[in-house]
């Protein structure tokens, strides 16, 4: 009964937020979807349906929904959902007390609604005892840093080009002159850089992170790096007495700015809660991959391989449309109806229009680096990523044509330009 009343209260709070919470209202209008929150024994449940900015709810213990949040029992659900601990739901997921079944993109979007719902709560995301250093304020890093600061964490910033730190310093952040100084002032250091070399250098340089990070400090890496470097950094930090955690992010710069990234986290389980409190500031969801940091690297490369393989497939089929006269619009419609992920819809439009210089979220040079990491990971494990050499060849050809700073999907133009 208590859980049923709690879910009813949540529905009323959402409808009220739809009237007076601008952030909630904006996010609500970004898509349609449904979620059924229920207990495994069907003793309690409620269906939430969102369509065209409207919220519809009803008592429902079973039935169809895009995603279901299935609680082990009503008492655990009530205790978790009323907890003041921002990590309570994550712990419940980790412990198997609740299971998400169905379209995880809807679950991720729903978590953004809840995040917006709590945006005005005085204590949401606040942790004044935890100071976070952000190193790297590029396209992704600036969005990550902005959300960390907005969540109430004390922020330290360092960037090789110091001009990029100004908006954060003007908003109260501490400016560090070196990575070492940034690390010395923080409990957690988040790095958002370019590649293996830049991350290794920022850690091991004379004025790098390691020279300033206190014993027990945490380095949370949001950069896409190789599993091999991840293992290397874990060992380096262990010898130093600090912790290395992977928190690879999935999403484009606009998602980073909106706090809608997906974080893939792995590392010391005793550090998970601290890191997840930070990643929750810029992520719609944080998935815990395991206790070894390098697992998150394999997970991220797998996700990126899925994306880049679909780009290649789109390019091949658009080329067929050009050659046969079917036209690109047909294939774009097929892609958009087949993939619910908005990122793939985004690329379906971009590749159709051959618009590779506008709205560049991830440059081709970075994409080539990632696909080479994917192939290396495949060769070291399953040997199954057969598309990778083809994509690398086309990316290298596109770079030779001067496209290295275009959006990484520009390599598909090699197929469509034949």
Question: What is this structure, in a nutshell?
Answer:
By secondary structure, the protein is α/β, with parallel strands linked by helices. The protein is built from 19 helices and 13 strands. The longest helix is centred in the last third of the chain and has 32 residues, at 293-324.
Task: Write up this protein.
The chain has helices spanning 2-20, 22-28, 74-81, 88-95, 104-117, 139-150, 166-170, 179-184, 196-204, 209-212, 227-240, 253-258, 272-282, 293-324, 328-338, 342-353, 364-380, 387-400, 413-416, and strands spanning 33-39, 45-51, 54-59, 67-71, 98-102, 131-135, 154-158, 174-175, 188-191, 218-221, 243-250, 261-266, 283-290. With 418 residues, it is an alpha/beta fold. The chain has three domains: 2-117, SCP2 sterol-binding domain (Nonspecific Lipid-transfer Protein, Chain A); 131-291, NAD(P)-binding Rossmann-like Domain (Rossmann fold); 299-416, N-(1-d-carboxylethyl)-l-norvaline Dehydrogenase, domain 2 (Orthogonal Bundle), CATH 1.10.1040.10. The strands form two sheets. An eight-stranded mixed beta sheet has the order 8-7-6-9-10-11-12-13, sandwiched between helices. The longest helix has 32 residues, at 293-324. The chain is globular. Mean pLDDT is 91; it is low at 122-128.
């Amino acid at each position: 009964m208590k859980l049923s009343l709690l879910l009813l209260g949540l529905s009323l709070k959402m409808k009220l937020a739809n009237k007076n919470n601008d952030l909630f209202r904006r996010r609500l209008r970004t898509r349609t979807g449904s979620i059924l929150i229920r207990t495994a024994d069907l003793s309690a449940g409620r269906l939430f349906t969102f369509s065209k900015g409207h919220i519809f709810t009803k008592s429902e213990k079973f039935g169809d929904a895009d995603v279901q949040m299935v609680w082990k029992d009503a008492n655990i659900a009530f205790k978790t959902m009323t907890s003041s601990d921002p990590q309570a739901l994550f712990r419940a997921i980790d412990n198997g007390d609740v299971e998400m079944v169905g379209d995880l993109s809807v679950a991720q979007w729903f978590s953004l609604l809840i995040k917006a719902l709590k945006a005005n709560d005085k204590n949401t995301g606040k942790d004044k005892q935890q100071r976070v250093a952000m190193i790297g304020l590029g396209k992704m890093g600036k969005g990550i840093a902005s959300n960390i600061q907005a969540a109430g964490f004390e922020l330290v910033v360092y960037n090789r080009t110091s001009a990029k730190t100004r908006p954060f310093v003007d908003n109260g952040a501490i400016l560090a002159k070196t990575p070492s100084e940034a690390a010395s002032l923080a409990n957690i250091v988040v790095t958002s850089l370019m590649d293996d070399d830049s991350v290794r250098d920022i850690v091991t340089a004379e004025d790098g992170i390691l020279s300033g990070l206190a014993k027990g400090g945490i380095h949370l890496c949001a950069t896409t790096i190789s599993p091999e470097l991840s293992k290397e950094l874990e060992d380096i930090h262990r010898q130093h007495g600090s912790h290395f955690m992977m928190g690879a992010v999935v999403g484009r710069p606009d998602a980073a700015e909106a706090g809608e990234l997906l974080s893939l986290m792995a590392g010391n389980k005793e550090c998970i809660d601290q890191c997840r409190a930070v990643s929750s500031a810029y992520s719609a969801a944080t998935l815990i991959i395991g206790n070894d940091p390098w697992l998150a690297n394999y997970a991220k490369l797998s996700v990126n391989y899925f994306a880049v393989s679909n780009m290649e497939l789109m390019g091949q089929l658009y080329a067929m449309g050009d050659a046969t006269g079917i036209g690109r619009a047909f294939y774009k419609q097929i892609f958009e109806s087949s993939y619910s992920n908005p990122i793939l819809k985004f690329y379906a439009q971009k590749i159709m229009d051959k618009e590779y210089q506008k709205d560049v979220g991830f440059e081709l040079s970075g994409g080539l680096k990632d696909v080479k990491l994917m192939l290396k990971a495949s060769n070291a494990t399953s040997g199954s990523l057969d598309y990778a050499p083809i994509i690398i060849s086309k990316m290298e050809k596109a770079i030779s044509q001067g496209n290295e700073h275009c959006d990484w999907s520009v390599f598909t133009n090699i197929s469509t330009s034949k």
